[in-house]
């Protein structure tokens, strides 16, 4: 499972997006703007391809407040999404992920 400590602190996202994976579920986190307010935009999508190479119709996204507290909420959301569709994600594991 993803822990909030596995994700970076707020200053990291001010400069760069972050991508990672949990078995066959890949995720991409970046700072975005929504109604002139900074937010976290978080996408989940099946592996093994990277965010840019995955078809948009395979991606699901959610926004969160751009605060340090949201990092724990994002980790919880990612874990929940993995658990809800574990069989689906496991079918999309890379051969390299073991």
The total count of strands amounts to 4
Question: How much helix is in the residues?
Answer: 25-40%
The oligomeric state is single chain
Helix/strand order, N-terminal first: HEEEEHH
How far apart lie the N and C ends?
16 Å
The average pLDDT score comes to 94
Largest sheet: 4 strands, antiparallel
Enumerate how many helices there are, as a single number.
Answer: 3
Write the layout of secondary structure elements.
Elements: H1 10-15, E1 18-22, E2 25-34, E3 37-46, E4 60-65, H2 70-84, H3 86-90
Antiparallel strand pairs: 1-2, 2-3, 3-4
Quick take:
By secondary structure, this protein is an alpha+beta fold. It has three helices and four strands, in the order αββββαα. A four-stranded antiparallel β-sheet has the order 1-2-3-4.
Describe this structure as you would to a colleague.
The chain is α+β, with helices and mostly antiparallel strands. It is built from three helices and four strands, in the order αββββαα. It has helices at residues 10-15, 70-84, 86-90; strands at 18-22, 25-34, 37-46, 60-65. A four-stranded antiparallel sheet has the order 1-2-3-4. A hairpin with a 2-residue loop joins strand 2 (25-34) and strand 3 (37-46). The longest helix is centred in the C-terminal third of the chain and has 15 residues, at 70-84. The radius of gyration is 13 Å and the shape is globular. The model has no long low-confidence stretch (mean pLDDT 94).
């Amino acid at each position: 499972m993803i822990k909030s400590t596995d994700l970076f602190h707020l200053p990291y996202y001010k400069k760069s997006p972050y991508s990672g994976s949990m078995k066959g579920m890949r995720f991409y986190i970046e700072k975005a703007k929504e109604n002139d307010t900074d937010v976290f935009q978080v996408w989940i999508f099946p592996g093994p391809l990277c965010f840019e190479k995955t078809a948009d119709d395979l991606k699901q996204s959610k926004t969160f407040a751009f605060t340090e507290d949201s990092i724990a909420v994002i980790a919880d959301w990612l874990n929940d999404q993995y658990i809800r569709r574990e069989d689906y994600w496991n079918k999309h594991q890379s051969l390299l992920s073991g």
